[in-house]
Each structure stands twice: as structure tokens, then as C-alpha cells.
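C-alpha cells incoming
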């Protein structure tokens, strides 16, 4: 894995053979401000556009920042404006906290971009990787 980006809040890694980017939100997100979230998310999109993956693994198990409804709208607009390629699959790993999963699902539904083919939620990272690397 090649590290593409690292901050106290987010780490992005690239697995070239699988054309897979792994985004790991870190526990430091507990103290993240809305402005910091916007900066990190903008950086995230820039890095993805520079290294366009076919598959995206988003690990939100340590994500402790709550994305409020206004920020959700901002994320949706940013994804629609900035996503420059077509993703085959997105796997989102969440803990068993139903609220976190619902928030992530809502974000993905609101994004509803034609650039995303399939999104699936998992509690186990290994299952997410297996699903992502299986042929369509």
C-alpha cells in the first residue's frame, strides 16, 4: 500500500493492483471542527481525483465527528462537483452503531451520483475487502 495522504483525521492509501483507495477516518475526529472536516474532505477529493480508483474502501469505525445536515448538503455538492471518474464499488465499514450507519447511508443516497455504481455497508473490514476485490 502506498500512502497518498495523512492527517490527524484521515489516512488515504492506494493499492495499485486492485485500483483500490482505502480511506481510514481516525479517532482524532472526536475533536475535529466543521472547518477542519471541510478542509480534510476537500483534500480527500483532490487526492482521489489525482489517483482515480475503481474501488473505494471507507473505514468509518473510528469516525467520531458528527456530520450535521448542512454539512451533509455541502458533502453532497462537493462530490457531485468534484468526482471526475466512475467508481465501480464503494465499501463502507462502520461499527455496529446504527446512527453512524444511517448517517453514512443518507450521505451516499443524497450523493446519488451517476459516478458510483454499487455501495455496500459492512461491520468487518475483511468482508468489505473481499467484496471489493471479487469481480462484478
Amino acid at each position: 500500500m502506498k500512502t497518498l495522504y495523512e492527517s490527524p483525521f484521515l489516512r488515504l492509501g492506494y493499492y495499485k493492483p486492485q485500483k483500490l483507495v482505502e480511506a481510514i477516518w481516525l479517532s482524532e475526529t472526536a475533536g475535529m471542527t466543521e472547518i477542519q472536516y471541510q478542509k480534510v474532505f476537500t483534500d480527500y477529493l483532490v487526492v482521489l481525483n489525482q489517483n482515480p480508483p475503481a474501488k473505494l474502501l471507507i473505514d468509518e469505525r473510528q469516525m467520531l465527528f458528527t456530520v450535521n445536515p448542512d454539512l451533509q448538503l455541502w458533502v453532497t455538492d462537493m462530490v457531485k462537483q468534484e468526482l471526475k471518474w466512475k467508481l465501480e464499488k464503494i465499501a463502507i465499514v462502520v461499527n455496529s452503531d446504527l446512527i453512524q450507519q444511517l448517517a453514512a447511508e443518507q450521505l451516499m443516497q443524497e450523493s446519488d451520483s451517476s459516478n458510483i455504481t454499487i455501495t455496500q455497508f459492512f461491520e468487518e473490514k475483511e468482508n468489505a475487502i473481499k467484496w471489493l476485490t471479487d469481480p462484478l
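note: The two ends are 23 Å apart (CA to CA).
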